[in-house]
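Subject — a protein and its fold
Fields — amino acid sequence, structure tokens
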Amino acid sequence: MKHIDDIQKELKAKDYKMTPQRKIIIDFFLKHPEKHLSAEDVFLEVKKINPDIGLATVYRTLELLADLEILKKMNFDDGKFRYEFSNEEEHHHLICLGCDEVIEFENEVLESLANVIAQKHGFKVVDHQLKFYGYCKNCTQKGKDYI
């Protein structure tokens, strides 16, 4: 798990400062590492902490953190980008079409398959994403009309 001091060092090494706005946004991700948040989601949450923060600042900060590979920018085909901390552990996502919940999972078989495919084709994989779309347990149990 990353720590704010580590991120501050990463920023400084790339000639960026830890501004108060960046710190609030990074702190929010540190406190909620399981979340996959859009810029609008982040804005609504950090505005509770600092009412003066603007949506444009949140967008710029998220883009910068993604460009610096501190955050990973993901597209779940719902019309908005979502962000999570970049890390060394490969994981995949289950995306609920009912409530938009995103569930992370790891699977050694899938990782082995990716390695076999890469070796077979002489391909060096630097990143991959696997997304399953469906309905989470809560939506299924509620018996929503779309299930």
